[in-house]
Amino acid sequence: MGQFLPWLLDAARETGYPVAELANWRNHHHGPMANHVHGVICHHTAGPDPYPGAKNDFPSISVIRNGRAGLAGPLAQYGLGWNGTVYIVSAGLSYHAGSGSWKGVSGNQYFIGIEAEDKGDGDWTDEQLDCYPRLVASICQHLKAGPEWVCGHKEYAPRRKIDPAGINMDQMRRTIGYYLSEPNKLRRSGVIGIKPPPVIGEDVAVQSIPISGQGLLPVICPVGGGAITAAAWISATIAEGTGHLRCFAQSDEGGVHDWEWHLESKNGHCPRRWGPLRDGVTQVIIHYNLTGRGVIGIETKPR
Ligand SMILES: [Zn+2]
With 0-12 CB in 10 A as exposed, 13-18 as middle and 19+ as buried, what is 253? Predict the structure, then answer.
């Protein structure tokens, strides 16, 4: 008995924030959830790097996905990055709660866990503070749970835990209650996105997108070995300094592949890094952090 939660993806998308599915999230778990999942526990990661000096949006990603010494991952169903990206980690049981209880209910099988990236000092970004209650409200809609079924880890286990630091959970529950009563307000307004790459009449078409500093680039791509293109690649290079990129290739069904690139420019030259966009990839979400300027390339070979 029990259940898995494939709708976690829909719940994340309903926030209007970028969603990155980690590869194999549907089958990465410690077993099923309970037949009746009661609510949500909100956490912070106590991650290693303080914003904005970190290399990427969600430096705790491998800990939350794979676990740590003495505790196997996944350690939450969701991650929430600094720029508001929602990471889908697991569709099933995840170890995040530990001993404790909320409204008389105890155990990971009854609660969905969200690990939001924060050092533990409560220094949240505007995107996180905006996205967090929207995500939880969206989950509550799917669970048919009221805001009273949302708690902080610091409320579930008050003697052991302080997370999520700096967030007033009563206020959070009021915000969630507002979104549940006004569901058309739940999705944030405004859309991030760029147009698909043009396919021009050359052997390989290249669309170059200049980037610098730190940011997020969701690339919508009707590519892969589909009807439009014979093959497609995504690439990156930098003009100076160093760069760190994390790419999440997504299909309509889920996360296909994710990878990291470390780039270093020596004497004004940096080798171009590239990866193939496999069949079915419809979007690549790229988090970048550069000391100088760089370029993302979308390279397509027409049929
Ligand atoms: Zn926690």
Answer: exposed
